[in-house]
Structure formats: C-alpha cells, structure tokens
Design a protein that fits this description.
Layout: H1 14-21, H2 24-34, H3 36-59, H4 63-81, H5 86-105
Length: 107
C-alpha cells in the first residue's frame, strides 16, 4: 500500500522571524535563561556578600532592619534553589541588593 502526498510540505524557519520580531527585553530574558547557572552563581556571591555586610554593619541590634535584610535575601536564594524563572530571580535579587545598599547608606 503506497501513500502519496499531494501537497508539497515546507518547513518555515520560524526562529529567524521570531528573532527579528522579538522585543529587545525578551531577547535579554532568553539569554538569561540560557546562561542561568552562570548568572545565578554571580548573584549568589553578590547577594551573600551584600547581605552579610548589611546585616553586620547596618542592621546592628535592630530586629526590623535585620528582617529587612534577611527576608528578601533568603527569598531570592530560595528562588534560585527552586529553579524559578530567571525574570523572577533577577527582580527579587535586585530588590534585595537595593535594600542592602540603602541600609548601608542610610544607617
């Protein structure tokens, strides 16, 4: 039993058209997802150092400031451990680093 295909099947290379029509930020997030483990390693070092400095020098004995440093830092680290989307990891890490820097500046 022979089967013939009457129409010619073509495969469109949709990746080229998707790249051409992609928004600049979507290509950034695609690059971040591709380089996930390198970016997460750098963020881990920066988050750990900034959180440690902020907790030791800026927070002191104030429980509210320690919670302000610890909560976003631990939340970002748990997002990394859970392998959440990079967009969420980058934004939560940015907020944690911004809070650490703000506490260091405005002790």
């Amino acid at each position: 039993m022979e089967t013939t295909i009457s129409k010619q099947q073509t495969i469109n290379d949709s990746t080229e058209s998707e790249i051409a029509n992609a928004k600049p930020m979507s290509s950034f997030w695609q690059m971040a997802e591709f380089n996930r483990y390198g970016i997460m390693a750098m963020m881990l070092v920066v988050l750990g150092c900034m959180g440690g400095f902020a907790a030791s020098y800026a927070a002191g004995n104030n429980e509210f400031k320690i919670a302000l440093v610890a909560f976003p830092t631990i939340l970002s680290l748990s997002f990394m451990l859970a392998v959440m989307p990079m967009r969420l990891i980058v934004w939560s890490s940015s907020i944690a680093i911004a809070l650490d820097i703000a506490l260091l500046i405005f002790q």
